[in-house]
Amino acid sequence: MAETMTRRGGCQCGKVAFEVESDLEGLIECNCSHCYRKGLVLKFVPASAFRLMQGEGELSEHTFNQHRIKHRFCRTCGVQSFAEGQSPDGQTMMAINVRTLADVEPWDWTAERVDGRSF
Ligand SMILES: [Zn+2]
Hints:
Number of strands: 10
Low-confidence stretches: none
CATH class: Mainly Beta
CATH architecture: Beta Complex
Oligomer: single chain
Largest sheet: 7 strands, mixed
CATH topology: Metal Binding Protein, Guanine Nucleotide Exchange Factor, Chain A
Bound molecules: zinc ion
Distance between the termini: 29 Å
Number of domains: 1
């Protein structure tokens, strides 16, 4: 799972598709009001490792709290493939929803639980 490779992913209906250059280390599950409800399993990567292949016009966006993270989801099927935000040092980061990666078997990963609810 440590191997860095090009992985493809996207929403359920197929309108949104992306590629990401990443391993599957350091995955997190968060218990905040947003991530927990969506069941997100996240991998953070620099924006340079991410390419949206199709679906820019199909994406809707949700922000909350301090509105620093753009949670982007397909307006047709509702699936959130990724979010976009800033790291503390100002770098643009993508939070990939590992559940939307095509080449990852369900449950074939482990994620650390992060207590986002208490932040
Ligand atoms: Zn969709």
